């Protein structure tokens, strides 16, 4: 049979006086006194309780706080927040920052996507022009083609295409079908006669830029002054 508590094995327990009772006008400390600090769920640190010692009600007046972290002090515990509403402001600020970052990233990606589409169009144009220039260089011609000259292309009844230096006006009544006129550039590319004015203007601007830059002293930035005048 187990011995009663408070009595040592083999020795009698001396009689002890009962503990004094507190006066009736004093309140005994309650075992269920509210803690000074209520742990904030998911925040990694304590939050100061509301005035009067009562714990803040779960979710009452507090919005969800996603992924909100508080700075830990030297004692290893998170910094205390005096007002529970500060947590809502902190969470709202974090959410607003995430929204701004996402919007900025979307704007930059939109610009990049537009540039990619433009580059794709430019690449397609370059390939088309390269195929056209290669095809024109294989057209029959009894003359040595010189850059800077305009050549007129005709097609015989047999389907053969050939270049001539005579225009339809100079020919008078040409027995062959006229297909078009092209100018041979110095880079051995061909420019259609309808695009010749625009192409010559671009070449003039580039030549003017090169001559102006060659005459200027060395500088860290290019000088485009006067190119459009």
TrEMBL record:
Region: Disordered, residue numbers: 1-35
Alphabetized GO MF terms: identical protein binding
Protein known as: Chromosome 1 open reading frame 50
Organism placement in taxonomy: Eukaryota, Metazoa, Chordata, Craniata, Vertebrata
């Amino acid at each position: 049979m187990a011995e009663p508590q408070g009595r040592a094995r083999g020795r009698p327990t001396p009689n002890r006086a009962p503990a004094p009772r507190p006066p009736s006008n004093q309140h005994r400390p309650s075992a269920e006194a509210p803690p000074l600090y209520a742990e904030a769920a998911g925040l990694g640190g304590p939050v100061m309780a509301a005035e009067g010692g009562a714990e803040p009600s779960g979710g009452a007046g507090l919005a969800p706080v996603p992924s909100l972290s508080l700075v830990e002090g030297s004692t290893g515990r998170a910094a205390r927040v005096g007002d529970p509403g500060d947590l809502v402001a902190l969470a709202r600020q974090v959410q607003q920052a995430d929204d701004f970052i996402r919007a900025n990233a979307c704007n930059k990606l939109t610009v990049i996507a537009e540039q990619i589409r433009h580059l794709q169009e430019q690449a397609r144009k370059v390939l088309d022009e390269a195929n056209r220039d290669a095809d024109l260089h294989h057209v029959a011609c009894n003359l040595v083609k010189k850059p800077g000259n305009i050549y007129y292309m005709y097609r015989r009844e047999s389907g053969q295409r050939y270049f001539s230096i005579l225009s339809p006006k100079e020919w008078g009544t040409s027995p062959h079908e006229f297909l078009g006129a092209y100018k041979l550039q110095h880079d051995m590319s061909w420019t259609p006669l309808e695009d010749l004015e625009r192409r010559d203007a671009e070449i003039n601007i580039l030549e003017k830029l090169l001559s102006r830059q060659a005459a200027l002293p060395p500088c860290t930035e290019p000088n485009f002054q006067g190119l459009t005048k």
